[in-house]
C-alpha cells in the first residue's frame, strides 16, 4: 500500500459527520489520488489510492460487501 508523499496538513481533509472526536478515518483528494489517514495521528502515516480504487471501495460499502467487519 503506497504512502502519500505530501504532508497531511497540505490537504483538504474530510471526516465523517458521525465522528465524535474518536479514532476516525480522514479522506482527502489530491489530483488522481484519494488519500486516507487517521484522526488520531493527523501527522501521518497516510495512504494513497487511485480514484478508481476508491470508487470500487465505495461501491462495495454501499452494496454491503464489508458489513460485519466492524
Describe the protein.
By secondary structure, this protein is an alpha+beta fold. The protein has one domain. The chain has one helix spanning 51-63; strands spanning 14-15, 25-30, 33-38, 47-50. Strands 1-2-3-4 form a four-stranded antiparallel β-sheet. Strand 3 (33-38) and strand 4 form a beta hairpin. It is globular, with a radius of gyration of 12 Å. It starts with 13 loop residues before the first strand and ends in a 7-residue tail after the last helix. The relative contact order is 0.21. The model has no long low-confidence stretch (mean pLDDT 88).
List the helices and strands and how they pair.
Blueprint: E1 14-15, E2 25-30, E3 33-38, E4 47-50, H1 51-63
Features:
four-stranded antiparallel β-sheet, 19% helix
Q: Largest sheet, order of strands side by side?
A: 1-2-3-4
Strand content: 25-35%
What does the radius of gyration come to? 12 Å
Count of the separate structural domains = 1
- Our count of helices gives 1
Please give the share of residues in helix: 10-25%
DSSP strand count: 4
Shape: globular
Mean pLDDT: 88
Run of helices and strands: EEEEH
Q: What's the quick description here?
A:
This protein has one helix spanning 51-63, and strands spanning 14-15, 25-30, 33-38, 47-50.
Amino acid at each position: 500500500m503506497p504512502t502519500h508523499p505530501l504532508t497531511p496538513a497540505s490537504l483538504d481533509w474530510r471526516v465523517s459527520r458521525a465522528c465524535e472526536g474518536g479514532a476516525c478515518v480522514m479522506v482527502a483528494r489530491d489530483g488522481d489520488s484519494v488519500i486516507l489517514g487517521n484522526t488520531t495521528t493527523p501527522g501521518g502515516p497516510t495512504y494513497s489510492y487511485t480514484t478508481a480504487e476508491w470508487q470500487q471501495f465505495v461501491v462495495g460499502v454501499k452494496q454491503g460487501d464489508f458489513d460485519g467487519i466492524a
